[in-house]
Amino acid sequence: MISSNSLVLLACVAVAVVLILGLFNMMRGGSANLSQKLMRLRVLLQFLAIIFIMGVVWWRSA
After folding, report:
1. Tell me, what DSSP letter sits at residue 45?
2. Which of 14, 34, 44, 62 is most enclosed, with most CB atoms within 10 A?
3. 56 vs 12: CA distance, rounded Å
4. Are the C-beta atoms of 53 and 8 separated by less than 8 Å?
5. Cβ(52)–Cβ(8) under 8 Å?
6. DSSP code of 40?
7. Across 1-62, where does the E strand assignment appear?
8. What value does the mean pLDDT of the chain take?
9. Of 38, 41, 1, nearest in space to 21 by CA
């Protein structure tokens, strides 16, 4: 089973990877459509990461 620390780390790494891909695509003049999709995905992943972090904090305080 995945530990809570691993889940939070995985969520944060996923956000960072998508952010870097989106920035790289914008910097090299890639498709604006792809950049927009990547940034939307980043926002979704950030939301999930925050939910995971808040869940872990709640779980450990209980």
Report:
1. H
2. 14
3. 14
4. yes
5. yes
6. H
7. none
8. 92
9. 38
Using CA atoms, how far apart are residues 23 and 6, in angstroms rounded to an integer? 25
Alpha-carbon distance of 11 to 6, in angstroms, equals: 8
pTM, rounded to two decimals: 0.85
Query: If 0-12 CB within 10 Å is exposed, 13-18 middle and 19+ buried, where does residue 32 land?
Result: exposed
Token pair 């920035």 is found at: 23
Condensed to tens digits (0 to 9), the pLDDT of residues 28-55 reads 998 989 999 999 999 999 999 999 999 9
Pairwise CA distance, residues 13 & 16, whole Å: 5
